[in-house]
Structures are given as C-alpha cells and as structure tokens.
Amino acid sequence: MRVYRQLLLLAFTSSVIFTGSASEIVQSKGHFEDKFRQLEESLPTANGYRNAAGEPGKDYWQQQVDYKINVTLDETKRRIEGEQVITYHNNSPYKLKYLWLQLEQNRFKSDSIAERSSTFNGVDGSVSAANTYGDNAFAKISLQDLRRQQFLADNSLGYQITAVTDANKKPLKYTIVGAQMRIDLPKPLPHNQSTKLNINYSYNILEEDAVGARSGYEHFPDDEREGGNDIFLLAQWFPRVASYSDYEAWHNKEFLGSGEFTLEFGNYDVSMTVPSDHIVTATGVLQNSKNVLSATQLKRLEKAKTAEKPVFIVSADEALANESSTAKGTKTWHFKADNVRDFAWASSRKFIWDAQGYQQKDSQNPHVMAMSFYPKEGGELWQRYSTASVIHTLKVYSRFTFDYPYPAAISVNGPVGGMEYPMISFNGPRTIWHDDESRTYTLSEKQFLIGVVIHEVGHNYFPMIVNSDERQWTWMDEGLNSFLDGIATREWDPDLPWGREPSDVTEYMKSNVQVPIMTQSDSVLQLGPNAYIKPAVALNILREVILGRELFDFAFQEYSHRWMNKRPTPSDFFRTMEEASGVDLDWFFRGWFYTTDHVDISLDRIYKLRLDTNNPDIDFERRRQDYQAKPMPYSVERNQQSGQKTWVDLNSDNLDYHDQHDQFSVTNKERNKYNKKHAELDPWEQQVLARALKEDKNYYVFNFANLGGLVMPILLELTFENGNTESLVLPAEIWRRSPSQVSKLIVTDKDNILVSAVIDRRGETADVDIENNYYPRQIIPSRIEAFKEEERKGNKYRDIMHDNKEALKEPEIKAKKK
User: Fold this and answer.
1) Whole-angstrom Cα distance, residue 244 to residue 256?
2) Are 481 and 461 in contact (CB under 8 A)?
3) C-alpha to C-alpha distance for 332 and 272, rounded to whole angstroms
4) CB-CB contact of 174 with 223 (8 Å)
5) Cα gap 243→467, rounded to integer Å
6) Which residue ranges does UniProt annotate as crossing the membrane (predicted)?
7) Sheet holding 79-90, edge to edge
C-alpha cells in the first residue's frame, strides 16, 4: 500500500508542479544509435604482446636491423652507388624463411603501381581540373606536370640491384615485386638468431623540383661555379628491410606516395664519399671530423657546444667561396647512429653551417647539438630562425613527452619543402633576391620556416622514437605531431597561423569529401585536413575541453614513455589515454576517428517554467496577472482610444454573477481539494514544497538537438537580466540515451532571470554552424572566403622588408585649371 501511495503522489506532483510546455523527446523504434558503445568491441583483442591497458605486454618483441653502408655520390652523373651489409636480428618467436625489403626508388618507375594508378582529376599532383564551357570541353595540364612527365621519360629511374649475397658472398635468391624485394634465406632464421646479407645497388637521383618527391637534388644554374651547383638531399636512398610485427607480420605494403615509412630500429655505420669541397650532414654523429673538417671548423664546433646563440661553423662568405670551388677528388664522411629507424643525409658545397648546443636535464644525454645547413638563398631568414626553432622544439616537446635521446637535431634547407628523418629534417622556405643585391623575406616565409622546422624536428618524437606505422595510419605521427607543433608555435608566438584550433577544421568536417581518420594513408581523400589538422584539433579539444590539461598531459606523457623506442598501434594509444586519464573516452575516439560525423549542436528552445503552489488562491491570481500582461488587441485598444463604450460599461447596474467574477476566480471546492491533498503529504514533503514555494526559483528547460551526429559536451554560457554571466559544461554523456535530442532543466535563483544563452561561444568544440548556437537567435557576422584570401595574400606576397626601402616621394600637386 505504501508503494502505491508514493506512485500516486509522484503522479500528482509531476502533473501539476510545472506550468508551461516543453517538447517531449520521442525515440523512434529501431533508430537508436549508441554513441557510447564501447570501443573494445572494435579494437584488436589484448594479448601478451599488447595488454588491455595499452602497454607493451610481457611478451612484447620487435626486430632489430643493423646497417653498415659505403656509398658514393657521383655529382656529375647525379647518381648513387652503394654497398651495404645488413645484420637482421630475429627477436620474434617465429622462424623466418625470407626477408622483405622496401625499394622506394622504384616508386618512380613507369611500371610501378603508384605511377600506373595515378589519376587525372584536378586533385592529384599539379594536374589542373577539367574545364567545361557549353559543348566545348577541354582539360588543362600544367607546365609543371609536363616537366615531371618529361623527366621521368628522359631518365632511367629505380634501383639497379647488382648483387645480393650471404655472409660468405654466396648469391641469394631474390624476387623484386614493384617497390619491394623478397630475399629467400638458405634456411629459416630461428628465434633469437641473426643473419647477415650483402646488397650492391645504384640509382639515378631524382630532380626534386621536377618530380616532386621526398628527396633528390636541386640545381642552381646561376651559381658562381661554372655549370652551377647542386644540393643533394638523400633519403629512401638504400634498400631497407621492411618491418615485421606481432600484429601484421611482414609490413610489405608497397610505397604509393602518401603512406610514408614503417621501419625497424637498428644501428647504422655509414660512410659517404662525396666531392672533396662538399659539406655533409647526416643522421648520427660524425666519426672522422679531423679528416673532413679544418682546424678552424673544429674550434668553432667546440665553441658552439656552450654558446648562447648559433655559431657559424661554415660562414656565409666561406660558403660563397666554396660555390666557385674547382677542387677535385673526394672525401669520405663517416657517421654512426645507434637505435634509430632510418638514416638520411645531405651534401653540397653551398652549405652555410651554424650550430648551438642545447643543454637538457637528462643524465644520459645532457647535451644536444642543434644545427642548420643552408645555402645563401636561405640568408638572414635561416640565420635568425632555423637553429632557434630547433631548440624551441626540443624544449617544448620534451616537456610533453621525454627528454630528447639523440645527440643532434638538424635542419637542412633544400628542394624538399618539409620532410623528417631521425635527427635530420629537410625544410624549404627561403629569402627573395632583389636587383639591389639584397635579400628579404615575407612574413609568410618567416612563419612558414618557424612552423615547418618545429613540425619536422618534432617528428623525431613521433614517429622516429614513438615508432608508429606511417604507411597504415598517417594520423599517428602527423596528427600527434601537429597537435604538439600547435602547442610549440603558440608558445613561440600566439599569432602564428598554424591551423590547429577547432575553427580550422569546421569547413572540412562538414564537407562531402571525407573519410574517417582511421583510413589507410593512401586511401585518404584529403591528407592534410584528415591526417594532420583533424586529429590535432581532436587532441586539442580532448586536452582543453574534455579532460583538462592535468589529466591529458599525464596520459599523453604516459603513452609517450610506454612506447618510446617501440611500435604502438592506434589501440595502444586509445587504451593508454583512457586508462591513464581514468575517463571513458570510447565515445570520443569512436566519433572523431571512426566516423565522418561533425559537431553541430543546436539550442532549439528555452522554456521558462514556474513552480505552482497548488494553492488555487495563489496560482489563479498568477494566471490572471499573466493574462492581463498580454498585449491588448488593436481593435480593443483603438475602441478605447476613440472613447467607445462597451455594453458592460453602459449596463453596470444589470450585471450578473459572471460579469462580477472572471475565469480566474477561485471556488471553495477548489480550496477544499487543495487542503485535502496538502494534508495527505508527508511532513518532509510539505517542508520541501514550502521551501520551494518560498524560494520561488526560475526553472528553465533547454532543448538541444545534435544535428551533426558527433556527440560532444555542451559548453553553455548564460546571460542574466542583471548583466551577470555563468558558464556551464554539460558532459557528453548527456547524449547517452538520446543522441539526437535532449532536454536539460537548469534552475536559477529568483533574481537571476535568464535573457539569453549561447553554446560554445569561444569556438572550442569545432561546431560547424554557430548560427543555431544562440537563443534567442542573433545576427551572425559574415565569414567569407574573400577575407581569408586577402589575409593570405597579405602575408605571402607583401615583401615589406624590401618595399619599405623605397624612398618616400612627395605627392605631386596638380595646378588648378584656370
């Protein structure tokens, strides 16, 4: 009987306690989508290699590949000839019958999958889109694209493998499959055993400006030297053993261009023979500096270790003198690098070289040499900002991850706009040469240099140390690195336009040319927005909005330490971030990384409700006041203004009961009913109701709609009649039972009368439509592309350093006509 009475009371109070109308959410049968479905259903099952917390498991293993390479750069022929000894350590629990190697130079052969699968649609490369005018349809092809075709046709490209032998120089059977090579072993390689093999090879170096690659040479025909000079940036320059992992076995997916590189850690011993007047820089530490550097250069290098600003090892004047060098013969530069996943180098007589030591607290690696190599074309821009940007990157990234473990961090200027390798990166921005023999740089080039150096040097952390699979998941290195370079650029200068804020991804997220972030690299439609900006913005939101900095930074650093010098997968990242933060993030990672949903939360309506007293003498009087406050109809108002009398006015002595009582008059029957029901309430219920009536608070029901499909917290800002504001965060879990529409009751004190509300006023959640964020609706300033375009042109094309050197002329005064 007690339970039944409570149900009656609940029915009574819920039916009369509020006045007003709030829309009711109705969930159609069969249309429910669980946005909070656990991600574990989609992730690989945890095992001994990778546990459920996102850590390397007790049985985790990874392979090691060591290289000893002797390579010769033929500057005249622009050709590489090398021989290498590979030592392969099988740390896996399996026997291996063969090894797979990557031959990335074969990607540029005419019969490669990459070349044969390229399309002509105005998106790929430099090919212009087709244009149609009426019945006359034609397509445009750029001169740059013709240049590429001609270079590929005129040059024999790809590896020439001249020998593959075992440790005893006996030939090994090998099969080349496009840009890969399988080497069959004489007998299976057991667990914990190693094998050696030798490969002799050569290839013609690409002209990077002609082909558009990640490495190659750049020719300077107008240099002082007869015939000009070249800068050589050498990467993907030797046959490299493919990765073999617990989750995929051999990673033998061919290089198509977008998916970068998946490699094993190992030790490198590399000797590069180059023209004697070249300066060489590379991954690792120079072993024979006394043989290749002058006494003066050695002294400068020693001084740079403790210098407070960059020291020139090769000055601009010395580099300019080298450009007209007629020296003959060769020098061999010997570098070693331990526990790195790749090796790259650069060589030119044009290089200016500056260096500065960076001191960190790491006891194992307290000293790092930050260095820059650039031609005179880099000029003051590089002198001021390259090495400084390198050191800034190390400071910021190490704070969020781990101390930098390598002895050097290098920035090299050349034809590659931006590309990264262990300890060394290639970066493109330069100065502008003028007829007055001066060099200047635009604001855009300055911003680009700082940003690209931070980004490419930052790649040492992801994926050079935290060794994710770039060929499969671009976002795991580009997205995480873009997130951190956004932090680093903001700490350099908040005005640097580097595209990591939520507003930078809204246009992409509502477009129809999307694929989920969790898409294989070569299948992504727009690599920049998908693999760089969107995951970076997602992590920015995760840090600033969802978790807060303390929880996020702890979890992110935990991931970095767990997978330092190891090979993580997306599931390891997702699990670590959730396990270390202590927050369920499955809804976040599923929505942002596995779907193309976008954020569009609409504040549809706000209803102001008032608590009824249930006392008819009070409630009916309130209703009378509300009725009387309604606007008077025009017809009634104008009748009164004209002095027209009503029948009731003219017959006041002949009014009945209803003329003397209105619809809000209270009857004794209603009073008795109220008294009876009030008496039936328990004492605590009477107390609760009495307090609520006394406080007379404002009850507001907010109706929200999720139009974009991506559930997010609702960042709500309320503005009151007295001018005060209040911020509320409704967690994403508010959508867990009804992902399309929800209502929220918000109660304010009697004096806090709400006048307006807005969702995400600061643009922190990447909401694609801000017009429906306001209630009442507001006029939204137009955001048109013309403004952005003008801003871009202003940064990129205004060379104010040079233009301001022009003398100010007195304005001409024209004589007045008589």
Assistant:
1) 19
2) yes
3) 5
4) no
5) 11
6) none
7) 160-166, 193-204, 79-90, 64-74, 266-275, 330-340, 285-286
- Give the CA diameter of the chain: 129
Are 763 and 503 in contact by the 8 Å Cβ rule? The answer is: yes
138 phi and psi, to 5 degrees? Answer: -150, 160
Question: Alpha-carbon distance 405 to 794, whole Å?
Answer: 40
Segment-wise mean pLDDT, segments of 10 residues, the chain, 818 residues:
32 36 47 86 94 97 98 97 98 98 92 80 42 52 87 89 96 95 97 98 94 93 89 97 96 85 96 98 98 98 96 97 92 98 98 97 93 97 98 98 98 95 96 89 94 98 96 94 96 87 92 92 90 96 97 98 98 98 97 96 94 84 87 89 88 83 88 89 89 90 96 97 95 94 94 95 95 92 53 57 72 56
Q: Dig out the tokens for 808 from the structure.
A: 């100010």
Q: How far apart are CA 696 and CA 265, in angstroms?
A: 69
In whole angstroms, give the CA distance from residue 597 to residue 427: 35
Cα separation, 477 vs 454, whole angstroms: 14
Pairing label, strands 439-440, 79-90 = unpaired
Instruction: Spell out the SS3 assignment of 623-661.
Output: HHHHHHCCCCCHHHHHHHHCCCCCHHHHCHHHCCHHHHC
226 Ramachandran zone, left/alpha/beta (phi>0; psi -120 to 50) = beta
According to the model, what pLDDT value does residue 121 have? 61
- Tell me the two tokens of residue 126: 């430099």
In the numeric block, which tokens belong to residue 525?
């439609």
Q: Is the peptide bond before 405 cis (omega within 30 degrees of 0)?
A: no
Containing 299, the helix (H) or strand (E) segment is helix 295-304
Report the pLDDT value the prediction gives residue 256, as an integer from 0 to 100: 81
Q: Apex CA 163: angle with CA 158 and CA 169, to 5°?
A: 155
Are the CB atoms for 594 and 518 separated by under 8 Å? Answer: yes
Report the run of H or E that residue 57 belongs to, with start and end. none
For β-strands 367-374 and 352-359, DSSP reports them as antiparallel
Produce one character per residue of 95-122: b if its CB has 16 or more CB atoms within 10 Å, e if not. Answer: ebeebbbbbbbbbbbeebbbeeeeeeee
Q: Are 260 and 352 in contact (CB under 8 A)?
A: no
State how far the Cα of 84 lies from the Cα of 239, in Å rounded to an integer: 9
Nearest to 593 by CA among 505, 530, 523, 503: 530
Least Cα distance to 432 among 416, 411, 447, 446 occurs for: 446
CA distance 248 to 345: 30
Say how many C-beta atoms besides its own lie within 10 A of residue 44's C-beta.
13
The pair of three-digit structure tokens given for residue 281, joined into one six-digit string: 């820089």
Place of tokens 């939520």: 502
What pLDDT is attached to residue 613? 79
The amino acid at 255: F
In the 3-class helix/strand/coil scheme, how is 11-46 assigned residue by residue?
HHHHHHCEECCCCCCCCCCCCCCCCCCCHHHCCCCC
Task: Estimate the crossing angle of helix 443-458 against helix 785-797, to 10 degrees.
Answer: 90
pLDDT score recorded for residue 294: 97
Q: Are 310 and 355 in contact (CB under 8 A)?
A: yes
Residue 803 pLDDT: 73
CA 627, distance to chain mean position in Å, is 56
Chain centre distance of CA 122: 25
User: Residue 457: left (phi > 0), alpha (psi -120 to 50), or beta?
Assistant: alpha
Q: Helix, strand, or coil here: 100?
A: strand
Q: Which residues contact 439 (CB under 8 A, 6 or more apart)?
A: 376, 377, 379, 380, 431, 432, 433
Which pLDDT value is given to residue 802? Answer: 72
542-599 pLDDT, tens digit each: 999 999 999 999 999 999 999 999 999 999 999 999 999 999 999 999 999 999 999 9
Q: What are phi and psi of 714, to 5 degrees?
A: -100, 110
Contact in structure between 273 and 331 (CB atoms under 8 Å): yes
Element (H, E) at 66: strand 64-74
